[in-house]
Amino acid sequence: MKNFIGIDIPEYIEGYGKVIPFQGAYENPVIKKKNGVRESAVGPNENKVLESIDEALDKANIKDGMTVSFHHHLRNGDYVLNMVMERIAARGIKDITVAASSIFPVHAPLVEYIKEGIVTQIVASYISGPVAKAISEGLLNKPAIMQTHGGRGRAIESGDIHIDVAFVAAPAADNYGNINGLYGKSACGALGYAIADCQYADKVIAITDNIVPYPNCPIEISQIYVDYIVPVESIGDPEGIVSGTTKITKDPVGLKIAKMAAGVMKASGLIKNGMSFQTGAGGISLAVAQELKDIMIKEDIKGSFASGGITGYIVDMFREGLFEYLFDVQCFDLKAVESYSQTHKHQRMSASMYGNPHNKGAVVNNLDIVILGATEIDTNFNVNVTTGSDGAIMGGSGGHSDTAAGAKLTIIVSNLMKARLPLIKDKITTVNTPGETIDVLVTERGIAVNPRRQDLIEKLKATNLPVMSIEELKSISEKLTGKPKDIETEDNIVAVVEYRDGTVIDVIRKTK
């Protein structure tokens, strides 16, 4: 069957189940009641602190076929997933589903567990490194499930993903399980991606390298959700957790793109008092933020909030009074961690509050402008940030699809050519964000506006910006690079790409 954007999707996928095809960004075909929470009781004299991960696995009654979850606030510095999976593997347990908010190169040991049948499915919003390569090569027993950040929160809350045991990397925890990410050698800031796991898992085990006196305040994750606490020597490498390397690009091409994107934002009329904004941590995206900052200062504009994974650069804008509040699902650098610890106006949000389309109002719905990137984009403005030019998995939507759907103005910023390949294609390798949610593409060679946004087209006519059709931009790039050959794929599906509402927007097949 074909879904809303014309992609052939099987009605049933082995290892995934019955498919609900993507039906449009705002259709929300299946809204479920939130899943019940399994409660347990802890008496006054019971001790939650255990001696080891093995003792925790005994208490959780870990067994074949279970789903275990992890979060990625420690990013490429995370030790917890590998520590836990090593002890699970040592027990000879098989058929484990790993529901991690994201997978990084540091999680390479999972590849051997996949080969041995210990791990048979992975559910994540982003996958990179050796695990992504292994999945792309068809080594995983069941198709991986790629979700958005908001979609993951929705799936956990609705019971689409049932977590048997959630493992929480806790930078600071007391002996009763109150957790925050603010203190200790592994401090990483906001823990927004772990919230749903803790609220809905059957068992929650906090792994910490920093036991602090009770009560551990402020409390991000409450003791009422945490069953056990396991002290370990280290939960992560600070070098991989917060690098502090998010910097504005110095590349003249990137700066040109940023300046044109700022021109689009200004022409839209959305740069005004009370505006809201989100951008990523890439060099061009931060250059757009710099351009916005200059406009706001010059015109004395005060915004309401900035959101997302917060960077130090956005913190600077906040501290200069350009935004009143910050909504943060994860801190990207040390300055963001510091800001989050110092003021209640820098507010943590859960992944569900951030982008779940099936709750009573996600933060993304209140975004005015979002700046996003793209690996590929087609002439219908559908975007790929999940697979590379070779068809292999190299990332994932994260909050891309969530913010694109919610914002009043969604701008893609990108070089027109990447590694001598054109950005724009007739048919992209994988669709994760539908074109109906993308408003503008800004490249160094010109700007294309989605024909759905005739209002923007009219506003941009009054500027000197180089506006053209996306087909014209595609033609320019192909004259420079040639037209690339289509990627040949096999029949077997290695990953299922879910839209934020749980429908299937695309599948990823093994490449030949």
Automatic annotation (TrEMBL):
Documented EC number(s): 2.8.3.10, 4.1.3.6
Keywords linked to the UniProt accession: Cytoplasm, Lyase, Transferase
Source superkingdom: Bacteria
InterPro entries associated with the record: Citrate_lyase_asu (IPR006472)
A molecular-function term among this protein's GO annotations: citrate CoA-transferase activity
Keyword Transferase applies: yes
Catalysed reaction, written as an equation: citrate + acetyl-CoA = (3S)-citryl-CoA + acetate; citrate = oxaloacetate + acetate
Subcellular location: Cytoplasm
This protein's name: Citrate lyase alpha chain
Organism field: Clostridium simiarum
Gene symbol of the encoding locus: citF
